[in-house]
Amino acid sequence: MTLFQWLVVPLLSFFLVLELMGLRTGRIRPTVRLLRIALWLTAILLTLFPGLSSQLASAVGIGRGVDLVVYLFMIAASVAWLHMQTQHQKLQRSLVELARAEAIRNPFQGGPAADDSTTTNPVVDS
């Protein structure tokens, strides 16, 4: 084993163990947790057997193993970014709905004083 493998495999294994222990907590959906476990296992395997990525790359018609890894990372990062953007938009909509409901429930709390006509309420953008 190379120095890189001696340093990286224990770190990746630590993350794998954390994911396996997290299966019991149930805070993250099991499908997401299993996907993350598969990611850590793949990273460990490709670190231990670097020639495996070259074999997989040539099997799918890509010249080098590192190119395959980069292409897969780019696809995964794009999917993750789109998912986070969607979740962010849902969270923003929920926050606006909550602020509106709270404003209707308590219309005079936190607003300007009745005799203070110089201040205006900020408008929540949806």
UniProtKB/TrEMBL annotation:
Record bears the keyword Nucleotide-binding: no
Taxonomy, superkingdom: Bacteria
Polar residues bias: start-end ranges: 116-126
Transmembrane intervals: 6-25, 37-62, 68-84
Family annotation (InterPro entries): DUF2304
Keywords tagged on the record: Membrane, Transmembrane, Transmembrane helix
Region (Disordered): 107-126
Name of the protein this chain belongs to: DUF2304 domain-containing protein
